[in-house]
Amino acid sequence: QAHVVESGGGLVQAGGSLRLTCVVSGDIFSIRDIGWYRQAPGKQRELVASITRGGTTNYADSVSGRFTISRDNNKNTNTVYLQMSSLKPEDTAVYYCNAKIALADYWGQGTQVTVSS
């Protein structure tokens, strides 16, 4: 079992930056990958970036070089950050954090990111 909470979304102008935070609590010693996904209106949810327990990262081509994912594991929580730079209007979406434990997926409630042109 895990509880996932995101924060840090907001409105920013194109070219600006935002940092999203995801705090995962619960059975944290069983957590494998933690990832950020996004869903824009009328589109499917897509993976933005993910990070393994050991720190290996993976990025969507559309954000590679602009976004950075990092992870801080402690005895009570796993916290994952998504630093987003050089934001574009097409980055506008609801961003969701996902934690994987065995075969189960745990999702947060999502945080809105809006990039104005």
What does this structure look like?
It is a single chain. Strands 2, 4, 5, 6, 9, 10 and 11 form a 7-stranded mixed sheet that branches. Strands 1-3-8-7 form a 4-stranded antiparallel sheet, with no helix packed on it. The chain is built from no helices and 11 strands. The model has no long low-confidence stretch (mean pLDDT 95). 0% of the residues lie in helices and 61% in strands. With 117 residues, it is mostly beta strands.
Write the layout of secondary structure elements.
Layout: E1 2-7, E2 10-13, E3 18-26, E4 31-39, E5 46-51, E6 57-59, E7 67-73, E8 77-84, E9 93-101, E10 104-107, E11 111-116
Parallel strand pairs: 2-11
Antiparallel strand pairs: 1-3, 3-8, 4-5, 4-9, 5-6, 7-8, 9-10, 9-11
User: What's the overall average pLDDT, rounded?
Assistant: 95
- Give the ordered list of helices and strands: EEEEEEEEEEE
Q: What's the number of extended β-strand segments? A: 11
Distance between the termini: 40 Å
Which structural category fits the helices and strands? mainly beta
**Sheet with most strands:** 7 strands, mixed
Task: Please work out how many helical segments DSSP would assign.
Answer: 0
β-strand percent reads over 45%
Shape: globular
The radius of gyration over CA amounts to: 14 Å
Note poorly predicted spans.
Answer: none
- Helix share bin: under 10%
Name its key features.
4-stranded antiparallel sheet, 117 residues, mainly beta, globular
